[in-house]
Amino acid sequence: MKLATLRNGRPDGQLAVVSRDLKRFVSGGKVAPNLQAALDTWETSAPALAEISQALNAGGIASRPFDPGEALAPLPRAYSWIDGSGYLSHLERVRTLAGSKDAELQSARPLLYQGGSDSLSGANEPILVSDDGLAVDFEAEIAVITGPVPMLPTRSEAAASVRLITVCNDVSLRRLVADDLQNGFGFFHSKPSTSFGPVVATPDEFGSAWRDNKLHLKLRITVNDALFGQPDAGIDMHFDFADLIAAAAGTRRLIAGTIIGSGTVTNRHEEAPPIKRDGIGFSCIAEARAVEKLKYGKARTPFLRDGDRVSIAVLDAAGAPVVGAIDQRVAIYRR
Amino acid sequence: MKLATLRNGRPDGQLAVVSRDLKRFVSGGKVAPNLQAALDTWETSAPALAEISQALNAGGIASRPFDPGEALAPLPRAYSWIDGSGYLSHLERVRTLAGSKDAELQSARPLLYQGGSDSLSGANEPILVSDDGLAVDFEAEIAVITGPVPMLPTRSEAAASVRLITVCNDVSLRRLVADDLQNGFGFFHSKPSTSFGPVVATPDEFGSAWRDNKLHLKLRITVNDALFGQPDAGIDMHFDFADLIAAAAGTRRLIAGTIIGSGTVTNRHEEAPPIKRDGIGFSCIAEARAVEKLKYGKARTPFLRDGDRVSIAVLDAAGAPVVGAIDQRVAIYRR
C-alpha cells in the first residue's frame, strides 16, 4: 500500500491511503489519525489500511484526487532521522576535496549521523535558507521508515523492521559542512530540514525491485528541469538497509517511526564522465564539482541559488514515479 | 508549576501536575494527554495547568502521592534533543586527553550536537549498556524544553522560548567517543539514551535563581552514594541558554518540545583538586580522570560498571532537589 500525510493544520497532518497510480486517495483517519499513530499500532493498523488500499485500487470506495502539493513530509515531525552512508563512492568523491581531515574510508562499517527530525519538509515545500551563498546542495537518497528495533538486533530483525520506503533530499549547506565536521560534533548547521517524497510505500509495492535490503530502481534527478542524475539505487550500495539499521541500533533501541537514510546514491563511473556520456550523472552537486575539479581543474556546476529547482523521483521499470516526486525550489528565508 | 510524565503503558505517558514539594500529584489529563500535547498548545494549556498547580499547592484538590519511580522522561520520545557546550572547561579538560584531533577551543560560538531523542530514559530507569567495558560515564547537565523558535531568532526570542527546566544525564560510552568524533559524523554510538529528572519546572519555580538565561543553583552528584561533584550551574557558563537556542536555530526552526542541554556543568578549579579540597568536584568521570592524569600521571577514578549507581539533582538554596533526582544504576542489556 501507499500512504501519505496531508496538510490539515495540525503538526502531524492527516493520514491518507493513496492509490497505486498516485491519482486518488482515501482518508486513513478511521484507522489512525496520522502516520506515527499507525506505526505505533502497525500490527493492527497495517492490515486495516491495506484493506482500504485494496478497495481504493479496485475502485470500490469513494475517493478524492490526490494532490502531492498538499502532502507534508510523511512524518512532518519524526522522533529520529538517521542518515547513513551506504554508497562509499559518495564519500570517496566528496572527501577528496571537502577539506575533510579524515579521507580514510570507513568501509568496515557504515557512518551514521543523527539528523534534525523535528521539522521535515514536504515534497513541494521550499528549501528555506537564510543565505543562498552558503553553497546550497541536495542529496538524493532512499529512505526507509522502521518499526521498533531492539538494541543489538540480528541482521534479519533489522531487515524485517522496514515498514515503508520513499525518497528524500538531504539538503546540505556545503559552506558549513567543513566547520561542522572539523569541530568533531558532526553535521548540524550544515543540514537544514530534510525533504521527503509525497508518498511512502510498503516494500511489496516495489515487487522484486526491493530485494537484498536494497531498492533496485533508478532515481531520476533534475536541476532546473535538466537531467542531472539517474543512478540505480541497487548498485554500489556497500551497506544495505539491514546493515544501516543494525548499526544504528548498536548501543540503543530504535522506536517505531525511525527514518533511516541510505546516504547519497552514487554509482561508480568508469572515468566519471558528465551525465551526457554514461547517463548516470550525480545525486548531488558536490560530487559533480569534485569530478569536474579533477577533470578540468575547476568546478563548473554551480550550487543552488534562490529560485533554483530540484526534482527527485524513483522510477519503476516502466518509468513511473513509485512514490511521487520531490520537486522543490530554493527560497530565501525572511522573517 | 512542576510537571511530570507518568508511566501508563503508552509511549508518551500521562501528564501529571506535581506539587512544589514533589510529594503529591494530580493528573493533567483534563488539559492535555501528555507533555508534548501540552507544549503544542502551551498558550492555553499552561494557564490551565497552572491553575491545577495552584490548587494542588494550596491543598484544595484531591491528589495522590508522587512516586518518582513511576516517572518516565518528561518527553519519553522527543522530536529533538540538542546538546550544547555551555561550559568551556569541560571541553578543555576532556579534549586534552581524549585523543581529539582538534584541541582548539571554540569559544566564539557553542558546539552543538543532535542527540538521539526517540527513547529518552526516566530518572530511575537503568543505564542499559551492552558491555560495561565501554567506559560508561555520566554527564550532569541542565536541560530546558523550549516552545517553537523561528529560524534565526533574536536573543530575546531565544530566551523567551524556555518553557521548562530540569536536569539530565548525557550518558556517554567513552571508549566509542574518539571513533565517533574522528569519523567526523559526530556522536552516535557513544551516546545511548539520555536520562532526565523526574520533574520539569517552569522558570518561575526557580525564583531569582533563574536569571541571565542560566540556572544559578548547585548540582549534587553522587556515585555509589559518595559525593562526586557539586558545581554551580550558574558559574562559568560561557554560553547561556539563549546563546545555545539561538545557535541551534541558525539554519532551521525548532519546534515546541525541543530539548536543549547545557553541556556538562563544570566550574574551573584553582588547581583542580579532588572533591575533598574545594568541594566542587566533577560532573563526569572523564574530567576527573583527565585531572588525575595531569596530577598523578595516572587516572584513578574508574568508569561505571554493572550495578554502579549515579545520582544527579539540582538543589535550591535550602538544599532541596527542585526537580527531584536522577538516580540510576548501570545494567547490562540482555535480549
From TrEMBL, chains A, B:
GO molecular function: hydrolase activity
One Pfam family cited in the UniProt record for this chain: FAA_hydrolase
Official protein name in the record: Fumarylacetoacetate hydrolase family protein
Domain Fumarylacetoacetase N-terminal residue range list: 1-77
InterPro entries xref list: FAA_hydro_N (IPR041072), Fumarylacetoacetase-like_C (IPR011234), Fumarylacetoacetase_C_sf (IPR036663)
Entry annotated with the keyword Hydrolase: yes
UniProt keyword annotations, A-Z: Hydrolase
SUPFAM superfamilies xrefs: FAH (SSF56529)
Ranges of residues in domain Fumarylacetoacetase-like C-terminal: 81-321
